[in-house]
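ok trying again, last paste got cut off:
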Amino acid sequence: MARKPKALLVMNQKTFADQFDSTRLDRLARLVDLGPEPWTASLDRPALAGRLADVEILLTSWGVPRLDGAALARMPKLRAIFHCAGTVRSFVTPELWERGILVTNGADANAIPVAEFTFASIVLAGKKAHVLANDARVFRDDWNYTTKRGELGNIGRVIGVIGFSRIGRRVVHLVQQLQDVRCLVSDPYADPAAVAAEGGQLVSLPELMAASDVVTVHAPALPETKHMIGAAELRAMKDNATLINTARGSLVDTKALEAECATGRIQALLDVTEPEPLPADSVLYDLPNVQITPTLQGRWAPKPAACPTPP
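nice, full thing came through this time. structure:
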């Protein structure tokens, strides 16, 4: 029987409990040697020194510490990292690349629930379902409030997708299910032919903001994209248009969004914010034209079995 490579799961306790139930741990144990203690949140524990000296594979996720030179020196046999989440920017270092360690992630798999959540939000935004549900709490005995949120429906909508990423590309594809939809895409690095192949049209960000009934954000969080949606971009949106952010809170200027949404002119569906969570006194919590959810888009289906208590 071939020797199994020695592996260790490194992530915070909540993530381990969420992602690795007993069924998944059993499946994993058929492929790798997890040892008596499969999981850790820290690489600095003295009791792990011998284990780290032999580990060949790390399975990481949210909460993994930065793998700098000092951490890598304790893992001389490490040859692969399987990141059970999206971006690896938070923990990779030049020292890791210099050692030629293989790094892979679950970004493609993670894109599926995010794109599905976004598409569902787009459909509901066309009906103004989220904000009308809030209105119903106030106008309990008169449905005339439904006329105050603009047209209700999804036929002939203009959908703006910012960022032709893994997720953005899937969203462009999914919205083609809507009747007579026009899908605009803004991404300085996207290939116009690739966008067109999915049913979109590549345009500038100002054009997208001004023309779209629904704008959904899928750009990466980089220094150059911080607050890319600011006061000018929000003011350019149509009356009763909806901004959806399921990407990163830093892409939208929160103060500018608070000011624009406070006018009641546009709606916002926010699954991410800056900061997270928002301060308790943020006006966004109390506005009927704003919905805030606690980063639901990347959540997976319930686990098939109970998760063992992490050590």
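cool. Residues 139 and 145 are 7 Å apart (CA to CA). The first helix runs from residue 13 to 19.
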